[in-house]
Amino acid sequence: MSSTAHGSALKKQLVPFIIIGIGCAVLDFGVTYALTKLTPLGRIPAKAVGWCVGTLAAYLLNSRFAFRAEVNAKKAGAVFILYASTLAAQLLIYDWAARPLEALGFHEFWRDLVSFVIAQGVATVTNFVLQRHVIFRRETKMIASAEPTVVKQKPPMGDGNPPVPPSAVSATSE
Questions:
Q1: pTM value?
Q2: pLDDT of 3
């Protein structure tokens, strides 16, 4: 696979992954924050529920639009294991970031938002790399192989101007 096809396949997967990820992150944070403020749930259980909602939406949308894959039990199981491990990492980062952020003067909404963004960023990069190279490896190769081959043209000979037809030369010389 050429580097051009590889880069184009990466772009075809990364752009929808980012767009979907931003939308699902907003959904995740909205559910998390609403549950924290409107229910007796604490920050961590609310984050776990918000994550489940956002992640389910992200998996269904990314399977279809970013990786062009059929949703099946095998892939769903692999994604579940990946997402469960990134959930654990997210919850730890979300929790650990709270105290330093409070010490910096971030409280309530801003503390939760910044710790959410840090935790989400780590999980997003991890999820994309592992999904692209492990779980949806076959689909990634199919997307890359579907790329048209770019043929490089030879540079023009001479001074770069098109050739002059003989009739034009003889007409001007007479």
A1: 0.67
A2: 59
**Would you state the pLDDT for residue 131?**
84
Amino acid in position 97: A
Q: Nearest to residue 140, comparing CAs of 11, 4, 33, 21?
A: 11
Written as one letter, the residue type at 76 is: A
User: Collapsing DSSP states into helix, strand and coil, what is residue 124?
Assistant: helix
